[in-house]
TrEMBL record:
The keyword Transit peptide applies. Belongs to the bacterial ribosomal protein bL32 family. One of its GO terms (cellular component) is ribonucleoprotein complex. InterPro entries: Mitoribosomal_protein_bL32 (IPR051991), Ribosomal_bL32 (IPR002677), Ribosomal_zn-bd (IPR011332). It holds the Pfam family Ribosomal_L32p. It is found in: Mitochondrion. This is Large ribosomal subunit protein bL32m. Keywords: Mitochondrion, Ribonucleoprotein, Ribosomal protein, Transit peptide. It comes from Urochloa decumbens.
Length: 111
């Protein structure tokens, strides 16, 4: 019994009190959204209307291993680029120095 009285007093203290003599007026109901109106959501920054597009969201994180298996064939493949020197005919990589431009064996020094 004592607990019920305490509960009633706490509920009465928490309830908002209106000044006496003022009638309680309910707020007007919100107007329904027409098809031309749209609702602006602050987090999205765009208007969200009846035709809101929903995107697919993955259920779990894809591990690095699975992502590597999927993207492995998409990697760049090394292209073997081998050219012959114009002077001596040796095989070399492009933009690498081979000889000084002399014809014949570059190890021989004629002058």
């Amino acid at each position: 019994m004592a607990a019920a009285g305490w509960l009633r007093r706490a509920a009465a203290a928490a309830a908002p009190r209106l000044p006496s003599g003022l009638p309680l007026i309910p707020p007007p109901p919100p107007a329904p959204l027409a098809e031309t109106q749209s609702l602006v959501v602050p987090g999205l920054g765009a208007a969200v209307g009846p035709a809101m597009e929903l995107m697919a969201v993955p259920k779990k994180k894809v591990s690095k291993y699975k992502k590597g298996l999927r993207n492995g064939p998409k990697a760049l493949k090394p292209v073997p680029v081998i050219v012959r020197c114009r002077c001596c005919g040796r095989v070399k990589l492009p933009h690498f120095y081979c000889c000084s431009g002399e014809r014949g064996n570059p190890s021989e020094s004629s002058s």
